[in-house]
């Protein structure tokens, strides 16, 4: 009886402490950042692809900072230190930022610790650091037109990157299949890229299950259900622009504000490459050495490139054109991904490429004509 009474007393004391602990009404994020130039620190909420909200902002003073504020509910945000960003789930709690050569995470907050706990794991940090070092070594001073060198570098880089994703996916799978809250699972799944084990249909099913378990549906789950549903619809519609299908007309303006129709370009050449890109897209501009080589080799034989920029600012487009000095047809549509051409070809990411024959038939697209694959395809067509 004495043991029972003591246990009961401990339970009562624990409940008393819990009930007397006030709910936190604000957040505090602090940290000391190594090797910095006293850059700006901010918390940014991405509402959609074009709109952002800055929740809090501060400057580093002697490599240290502190951000304070409050949120009405747990919110997925990015913490920016200069150009470096760290994902986190922000609640009214206390957080500490760790950012150095080998570590990059925000510690604190119940949901944040669950969802982004893998960032604090030593094996993940080591794998991430190893992948970074490998990339720096294999891509240093590389000749992007040397097929063997590029393929070797990419293989090494992919090998190391795959290890980080394997650790991350395993951690997330533990959360999604474990005894964790629906809220933790919603945020974890929204950040998960393991499409092999979690395809679009399974994700939609899981989000619906999480919503049913909550007292009311969660906005992140609803948003992801809609995004995944739209994705499935677009994937079906993409069949209309698959190889073998006819091209869709594009009319855009060049540097002189004159309209150039894709159909005219196709009519005047044996093969035309419709290339979607933008000044801010690193991989797009990384394709230009291959495109220039292909253009130099096959332009006189009837090959043309219709380079359509999805930039939303004219000065950036013009600056990129001057820097890249591209010899082919350059046009732009400042409506970004909402431009008629981007909508017609269901462009959701760039670079996006479509090789079109003189009769208007799409003969190849996507990764099948990226980099050295384009060289091989053109060699085959112009035999």
UniProtKB/TrEMBL annotation:
One of its GO terms (cellular component) is cell envelope. Residues 1-21 form the signal peptide. Keywords: Cytochrome c-type biogenesis, Disulfide bond, Redox-active center, Signal. Coiled coil: none annotated. GO terms for molecular function: antioxidant activity; oxidoreductase activity. GO terms for biological process: cytochrome complex assembly. Its main location: other. Residues 241-383 form the Thioredoxin domain. It is found in: Cell envelope. It holds the Pfam family DUF4369. This is AhpC/TSA family protein. It comes from Gramella jeungdoensis.
